[in-house]
Amino acid sequence: MKCSALARPLFAPLLVAGAVAGVNAHAEDLLGDAIAKGKVNLELRYRLENVDQESASDKEAFASTLRTRLRYATGEWAQLSALVELDNVSRIGEDRYNDTRNGKTQYPTVVDPDGGDLNQALVKYVGIANTPVTVGRQRVNLDNQRWIGSVGWRQNEQTLDAGVVEFKGVDRLTVTYAYVTGVNRINGPEQGTPPAIYESDSTLLNAKYVVGPALTAVGYAYALDFDNAAASSNRTVGVRATGKVPVGEFNLTYAGELARQADNGDNAADYDAAYGLAEVGFGKGAWEVQAGYEMLGSDDGVAAVQAPLATLHKFQGWADKFLTTPANGLVDVYGGATYTVNGYGFTVAYHQYDAEEGNADYGSEVDAQVAKTFAKRYTLTFKYANFSDGEVAAYTDTKKAWLMAEAKF
User: Fold this and answer.
1) Consecutive 10-residue runs of the chain (409 residues): their mean pLDDT?
2) CA 232-234-239 angle, 5° bins
3) What is the pTM of this model?
4) Which end of the chain is more exposed for a tag (fewer CB within 10 A), N or C?
5) For residue 32, what pLDDT is reported?
6) Residues whose CB falls within 8 Å of the CB of residue 171, separated by 6 or more in sequence, listed in order
7) DSSP 243-269
8) How many CB atoms neighbour CB 244 within 10 A?
9) Domains of the chain, earliest start first
10) E-strand spans in 92-233?
């Protein structure tokens, strides 16, 4: 199980609650009632992933994995509630892929190592007016997950050992503060290289104000400091605006964001770089078309904007060629469309990737997906990504395909 020693003090409130309950018989009854009224959920997710990547070995990766997730959430007692979530990832058949732990580096990488772990274990307290406090191992997703996300696409999710306070005492305003002592990464649960756990001394601050449908404004400051991953330590400060505006019978959606990032903690790189996003969408009912421009800037080719806690699969295409931003930065110009008919959801997208410093052509990518949910419990998804190389040798032709089946009970 992935359980950092740094995170253990975060579970002290649960132990204290148990001690208090032992003193008072009535409190015991209430606690027993909260436990009895708890909810159990089971989720199953099977995925077959194929990666065909131009490389020296010329081998294709085939990863067949099943994730089983069991969750138990108590009812409320003394304004406290608790949640425990266990995950297990099992390999089905031969491991003809590099999961970053099995040593099969002759194959392309599919970051879905097998093993069981404690995905979430938290206590939530709602005794402070309009200010819920959550302590323990938890899933944290902020805004569009560009900077802070749980990487839900991978079989082993990313969760944080953290204390999180959400202030909602002012109408339309939500201020989220988190102190993070550990990051349980998708490479786990077994330790290895890269690390399964980042030992962290990080703070997250996010303030969101909803003016109305036409504007939601966000300001944020994230100071990441990792003892065992200094190269990923950085601080990012930015602002974001999103909204939806009616245009006749249609809707115009938009997102804009600006940020600055610099090194932090023991990061050996000395850099200061800019981030920018501009995105628009236009649609009606079942369909929408989108176009966007995203820049992860570079500081004269020394270092570039990085997002080590992001849900990176959501950005720069599904082939995952840019999980680490190149030192010369990255500009992603993209467009796409979504369409839903008879419960089938279709998505297509195109990306053109270039260096921010020097304008080198990294390549382009086409993505496509179709998904369908049946009886509200079962979902089938087929997904495909085709990356075509440009003029930078490090980024080679890559094709990826996924077939995924999910069930929730």
Assistant:
1) 41 41 54 84 98 89 98 95 98 94 94 96 97 98 98 97 98 98 96 94 98 98 98 98 97 98 97 98 97 98 97 98 97 98 97 96 98 96 98 96 98
2) 130
3) 0.91
4) C
5) 80
6) none
7) EEEEETTEEEEEEEEEEEEEE-TT-S-
8) 14
9) 5-408 (2.40.160.10)
10) 115-125, 133-138, 159-167, 173-184, 197-212, 215-224
Separation of alpha carbons 294 and 280, rounded Å: 12
Taking the CB of residue 39, how many other CB atoms lie within 10 A of it?
Answer: 10
Number of other CB atoms surrounding residue 32 within 10 Å: 12
Q: At what angle do helices 12-23 and 25-36 cross, to 10 degrees?
A: 130
Alpha-helical regions (H) of 162-207: none
- Closest by CA to 309, choosing from 118, 154, 158, 110, is 158
The per-residue DSSP string of 18-56 comes to HHHHHH-HHHHHHHHHHHHT-EEEEEEEEEEEEEEE--S
Rounded to 5 degrees, what angle do the CA atoms 183, 184, 187 make?
125
> What is the rounded CA–CA span in Å between residue 269 and residue 57?
33
Distance of CA 163 to the CA centre of its chain: 18
**Which residues lie below 8 Å from residue 319, measured CB to CB, with a gap of 6+?**
365, 367, 385, 386, 387, 398, 399, 400
Q: CB-hemisphere CA count at 13 Å for 408?
A: 9
Q: What is the CA radius of gyration of the chain?
A: 22
By CB atoms closer than 10 A (0-12, 13-18, 19+), residue 394 is exposed
Encoded amino acid at 22, one letter = G
Task: Indicate the SS3 state at residue 131.
Answer: coil
DSSP code string of 70-91 = EEEE---BTTEEEEEEEEEEEE
For tokens 């009632």, name the residue: 33
**322: CB partners within 8 A, 6+ apart:** 312, 316, 330, 332, 353, 362
The one-character DSSP state at 10 is G
Would you tell me how many other CB atoms lie within 10 Å of the CB of residue 370?
Answer: 15
- Give yes or no for a contact between 305 and 296, defined as CB atoms under 8 angstroms apart: yes
